[in-house]
Write a structure and sequence with these properties.
- The protein is an all-alpha fold.
- It has one domain.
- The longest helix is centred in the N-terminal third of the chain and has 32 residues.
Length: about 300
């Protein structure tokens, strides 16, 4: 098909017109290029943005090391350990306990005399609530434990990054809340727990109450707190302390990987799984007395706890 020639009053662009357009575009591009180079020089003059390192760092290690036994102490508080010890010491001081207790009597007497020097139950619970603020701590701890358990069958980059990021989040949370006052309180509380365990584990004292174990005695003193309530708190606290101690020991590590071929790492992964398994069911209160006065399992030794 042949195109009709343009009308005589319509002029096609001449070569000179095209040259003018190209020169205009070249000027525009040159101006843009000059602007971009100027922006680059301006940004370079600003220097790098100096963000602080990702928390936690090695400087946060003391706080995290204090948070681990403090968490165990909070679990033992929920189990009723110190309240039971204080109640029993009061009964002993009042003369209610008449059965000979041997050397344990001196330990109880010393514990009773120091009652005004230690933190009270309300003060202890206020510290626990501030450091392990619910429900945020449980959510962060669960994510970290799940990431630790996921490495039991070996890990890839995604699982390594998940363990790293969940550990950073949990570590930052605890480092911000475990201030020097909380760290000092941890020492005081742990010392008092060990003093209480010194006489609560005594068989003569347990026999005086008709208890068959340390935790049965605690349950009876706390008006029948059941086996599920006491033992679950103890197991959960022990497992949580193990996980948090590992977190504290590896704070700042670029690749905090758990190796299933290393027995000490397997222990951490097992502790993480036990912590997850000990979580109370939705709507349940593990610390509610169940009416069962005797634990089914005989726990002969006191739980180790240290800062």
């Amino acid at each position: 098909m042949r195109l009709a020639p343009p009308p005589p009053d319509v002029l096609l662009p001449t070569t000179h017109a095209h040259d003018g357009l190209l020169r205009a575009l070249a000027v525009s591009l040159a101006a843009l290029d000059t602007h971009e180079r100027g922006v680059a020089r301006s940004l370079a003059a600003l220097g790098d943005i100096d963000l602080p390192p990702d928390a936690p760092t090695a400087q946060d290690q003391p706080q995290l090391q204090a948070a681990a036994p403090l968490y165990f102490a909070s679990a033992l508080e929920n189990a009723g350990l110190l309240p039971a010890a204080e109640l029993i010491a009061g009964l002993f001081a009042s003369g209610t306990i008449t059965q000979p207790l041997g050397p344990g009597a001196q330990l109880i007497n010393t514990f009773w005399r120091g009652r005004r020097e230690r933190l009270g139950a309300e003060e202890r619970n206020a510290i626990f609530a501030r450091v392990f603020e619910a429900p945020h701590f449980d959510r962060l701890m669960a994510a970290y434990c799940e990431a630790a358990v996921a490495q039991a069958d070996g890990s890839d980059m995604r699982e390594d990054v998940t363990l790293e990021t969940t550990g950073q989040a949990l570590g930052e949370f605890l480092a911000q809340r475990t201030d020097p006052m909380a760290a000092m309180a941890a020492r005081d509380i742990v010392d008092n727990i060990n003093a209480a365990l010194g006489f609560l584990r005594d068989r003569l004292l347990q026999s005086a109450f008709g208890a068959t174990s340390l935790w049965a005695l605690v349950g009876m003193a706390m008006q029948g707190k059941g086996v599920g309530g006491v033992q679950n708190h103890v197991d959960r606290g022990r497992a949580g302390q193990s996980v948090l101690l590992w977190l504290a020991a590896h704070v700042g590590d670029p690749t905090p990987r758990l190796d299933p071929a290393r027995p000490e790492h397997v222990e951490v992964m097992a502790a993480a799984q036990r912590w997850l398994a000990s979580r109370p069911l939705a709507g349940a209160n593990a610390s509610t007395p169940s009416g069962n006065n005797v634990l089914a399992t005989n726990v002969a030794a006191a739980v180790p706890i240290a800062v």
